[in-house]
Amino acid sequence: MPKFGMPVNVEVDVLRPMAKTVREAVAGTYLSLPLPVQVGLPYFAVGASSGLIVHRISRRKLLAERTKCRNLEEKVDLLVLENKHLEDRLRELKSKVAAPRGASEMRMAAAVAEATTAAAAAASAAASAASACSVQLHPSNRRQGKASTAA
Predict the structure, then answer these.
(1) Does 2 reside within a domain?
(2) How many Cβ atoms from other residues are within 10 Å of residue 137's Cβ?
(3) pLDDT in tens, 46-81
(4) Which candidate in 6, 91, 105, 146 could, as Cys together with 141 as Cys, close a disulfide (CB 3.0–4.6 Å)?
(5) Which residues does UniProt call coiled coil (predicted)?
(6) Who contacts 24 (Cβ-Cβ below 8 Å, separation ≥6)?
(7) Using CA atoms in the order 108, 111, 113, 118, what is the torsion angle rounded to 10 degrees?
(8) Is residue 136 part of a domain?
(9) Domain range for residue 34?
C-alpha cells in the first residue's frame, strides 16, 4: 500500500532571532554613546572581562584554601584531643605502676632492697680484703720484677 504523506521539514530556530535582537540592541547602544567612549569601550571591556576572570579564579582558589585550612584545623583539634586522652592514660598507667599492688609485691620489693644492701656489703668486704692481701714490691726488686711478700 503506498504512503500518502508528504515529508515536512519544520525547523524552529529560537537562538538566531534572539542573537539578532541582542546584537541590534548592543549596536544601537554603542552608536548612541559619545565618540570618546566608543573609542575607549573595547579597552574597558577587555580590562573588565579580564578582571572578572581573574576574580573568579582567585575566588575559587581562596575558597579551596579556606576549605583545606578548615579541614586541617579540624584534624589538629582532633589530634590535640587525642593527645590529651593519651597523656591522661599515661598518667593513669604510671600511677598504677608506681604503687605496689599487694602484699606479695611489697614482700618482693623488700627482698630486692635487702639483696641490694647485702650485695653492697659484700662488695665492700671484698674491697677491704683485697687491700689487706696486697703484694708489696721491695724497691731493689722493682727493676727485676721479683715480688716479695710482707710478713
Answers:
(1) no
(2) 14
(3) 999 999 999 999 999 999 999 999 999 999 999 999
(4) 146
(5) 69-96
(6) none
(7) -160
(8) no
(9) 15-109
